[in-house]
Amino acid sequence: MLKRNLVTSLLLYESIRTTRSRARVVQSMVDRLVTVAKKRPAHVAIRQINQVVTDKNASRKIMEVLVLRYANRPSGLTSMVPAGARGGDGAQLVDLTLIDAQVGAMEEKSKAKAKPAPSSSSLPSSKTAKAAKKSTPKPKK
Questions:
Q1: Contact in structure between 79 and 97 (CB atoms under 8 Å)
Q2: What is the residue-level pLDDT of the chain in tens, covering all 141 positions?
Q3: In the beta sheet, which residues pair with residue 17?
Q4: DSSP per residue over 51-64, as a string?
Q5: Were 128 and a residue from 36, 43, 124, 134 both cysteine, which residue would form a disulfide, CB within 3.0 to 4.6 Å?
Q6: Hey, which bits of the chain come out as E strands?
């Protein structure tokens, strides 16, 4: 069940952080699922995908998005980037990401919609702020 949940999370979010040994297992499972979706008829592929993934949106994403994205790529759909060691037990962590993924696309959209920062002319510069602090007398006790 752990492997199935990791595969589902990778398909939905396109990036996960896990241990190196788990990532190796998940890599082959994701490659296999996308290959099945590309080569088999849709009704057969959906049945095989649903045996592994735990969310219907993940199987839908494979059939509608990932098959088109990786149509010309035979294998190597994921990349593993080392992310250091886990604090508790020292296990080697990796970031497992789908190739050509748009991770953080939602964050970029929200930043673009956010209000722009005030101009620097309206805020006092750091040098002026430091000078203002020095020039103000301290209250006497």
A1: yes
A2: 999 999 999 999 999 999 999 999 999 999 999 999 999 999 999 999 999 999 999 999 999 999 999 999 988 999 999 999 999 999 999 999 999 877 655 555 555 666 555 555 555 555 555 555 555 666 666
A3: 95
A4: TT-S-HHHHHHIII
A5: 124
A6: 15-19, 78-85, 92-98
Domain layout of the chain by residue ranges: 2-102
Two structure tokens written together for 103: 């991770």
Q: What is the pTM of this model?
A: 0.70
CATH 3.40.190.10 fits 2-102, yes or no: no
Contact (CB, 8 A) for 8 and 60: no
Strand order in the sheet with 78-85: 15-19, 92-98, 78-85
For residues 67 and 58, give the distance between their C-alpha atoms in angstroms, rounded to a whole number: 12
